Amino acid sequence: MPLLLSGRTFRRDLERSKALALYAPLEGGAETRLLRRMRACGYHTELSSVRGLGDPEVFLLGLHGIRPPHLGHQRVGKEAAVGEVQMVMPQLGPALSGPNPVLIWLLEGQVLSAAERSSLLALCEREPRLHFVLEMGGSRNLRWQPLADLGIS
Known about the structure:
Elements: H1 2-6, H2 8-17, E1 19-24, H3 30-40, E2 44-49, H4 56-61, E3 64-66, E4 86-88, H5 93-97, E5 102-107, H6 114-126, E6 130-138, E7 143-146
Parallel strand pairs: 1-6, 2-5, 5-6
Antiparallel strand pairs: 1-7, 3-4
Organism: Synechococcus lacustris str. Tous
Main location: membrane
Protein name: NAD(P)H-quinone oxidoreductase subunit N
């Protein structure tokens, strides 16, 4: 239990490898404690799901377009069948403007392909203040490993 009280080992491993794959107990609680510890250490944290992420680099750092969901019998007029494209600001624009390191905590990381995981690693290399934690599934006890060790080819 001392691991959950301080979070020093987790923070040291995160700063060394930049991106971690996390396996947490399914009853929950451990990951929120780690998030609180990282916020207390000065990290700006963002919690998100990887479902619907698309291209991680564009979604997190670039101006990108989204379309509203097509809900059936709607008059679409001059727009396409799926609606009008709306431009959205990058998710990490304000977070990276400050001096603090940024931690992106991504839920359901097991659905990412090897190429998407490697693009997250490349993003960490390009932006030194950016760190990722991917929740990769459940485990009996809290454990993590560097994301690069998951067999990205």
